[in-house]
Amino acid sequence: MSKPLAISMGEPAGIGPDLILSLYARRAELDLPPFCVFGHVEFLKARAQRLGLSLDIAAATPAEAAIVFPSALPVVPVEGLVADHPGKASPLAAHAVIQSIAGAVEAVLSGGCRGLVTAPISKASLYHAGFKHPGHTEFLAELCARGGVAKLPVMMLAHGKLRAVPVTIHVPIKDVPGLLTKELIVDTGRIVAHDFKQRFGIANPRIAIAGLNPHAGEGGAIGREDLEIVAPAVAELQFEGIEAIGPLPADTLFYPAHWAQYDAVLAMYHDQALIPIKTVAFEDAVNLTLGLPIVRTSPDHGTAFDLAGTGRGSDKSMLAAIRMADAMTAQAS
Ligand SMILES: NC(=O)c1ccc[n+]([C@@H]2O[C@H](COP(=O)([O-])OP(=O)(O)OC[C@H]3O[C@@H](n4cnc5c(N)ncnc54)[C@H](O)[C@@H]3O)[C@@H](O)[C@H]2O)c1
Ligand SMILES: N[C@H](C(=O)O)[C@H](O)COP(=O)(O)O
After folding, report:
1. Residue 120: nearest ligand to its CA?
2. Among 6, 133, 166, 280, which residue's beta carbon has the most beta carbons within 10 A?
3. DSSP 3-29
């Protein structure tokens, strides 16, 4: 019997539980691999009823999940309070949201599950409850840390061959130039090269590296970071044998004939990477974390509070996240 994927339930007031339930309802038609949700049985039953989905939902351990999956949605119970109030996020749910992620990660690290798919969290609600991490990406690095030392987590959004990696992630835009260092770009490029080889079978990925400033600084006339930080990082990666190209002007990097020459684009900040891919592939792109000892995928969208509990949200990106995690961990099933 194959090992299940672990799915964290995400923000209970958001769209994540809806997508998990609607995909589970179509498991046979979609030929889905077995998965278990780290969450609350009663909450998921209430949401399924609200959505008009007639499903069996049962508490299970990861070891039982693959057997239970054909007849009932397996739920690994987590601690904490969760109520079915779509669109109305409460910091009271934060403990359960965090326990869901932590439990799912532990199940993958211990070998009970083969990969992690996370449903969207409400970052503002978690911050309000004292959560210290900017998002999943950074929290996962801490959960996977060995010997107290967390590795650099790398965010990548992917749709087909279009893959974009922000070097700085969840930070204020005013802080980006100060946080951008040659070492950070080189470390990110190394992790991308390593994980492409290990997880995607691409031995020598071509990595385009965007400039920070308009026109990649125009020879230093429009900001010096491209000359003094990005270009030396590209040179260092090339010296190490990694096919890095740049700094390239970011505004023209994402027209199809351009990015299609590369396996990944390293962008200097969050929106430089995410706007192009969410613009062309919002319903289909997947968010992955590289640099971890586990496979983690997620849909590319957030909690969509305006759609939670309505059944009108698209489950395509969540489906793509499950399929990608399944494909990346097939050998472990
Ligand atoms: N992986 C994650 O955990 C993750 C990812 C992105 C955003 N977020 C969080 O989600 C919250 C809301 O963020 P936001 O409003 O910027 O982005 P959002 O993606 O939740 O919503 C943006 C717009 O896209 C629509 N949308 C989102 N998902 C959809 C779907 N599946 N089908 C149809 N339409 C959909 C929404 O209705 C809304 O109009 C924030 O707290 C943010 O931090 C979490
Ligand atoms: N930056 C991501 C996005 O907009 O899609 C999102 O915030 C998710 O980040 P985490 O996976 O770190 O929660």
Report:
1. 1
2. 6
3. PPEEEE---TTSSHHHHHHHHHHTHHH
Q: Does domain 153-290 have CATH number 3.40.718.10?
A: yes
Please state the pTM of the whole predicted model: 0.96
Residue for token pair 């959004």: 157
Strand pairing report for 162-166 and 243-248: unpaired
Residue located nearest, by CA, to atom 8 of ligand 1: 302
Selection from 3, 17, 5 nearest residue 97 by Cα: 17
Q: What CATH architecture applies to the domain 1-151+292-333? A: 3-Layer(aba) Sandwich (3.40)
Q: Is residue 258 pLDDT above 90, yes or no?
A: no
- What backbone torsions phi and psi does residue 225 show, to the nearest 5 degrees? -60, -35
Tokens at 132, concatenated: 């210290």
Ligand 2 binding pocket mutation candidate from 15, 137, 278 (most atoms within 8 A of CB): 137
Ligand closest to the CA atom of residue 134: 2
* Range list for CATH 3.40.718.10 in the chain: 1-151+292-333, 153-290
pLDDT digits (tens, 9 = 90+) for 4-53: 999 999 999 999 999 999 999 999 999 999 999 999 999 999 999 999 99
Q: How far is CA 187 from CA 24, 63, 166, 184, 287, in A?
A: 38, 37, 12, 5, 19
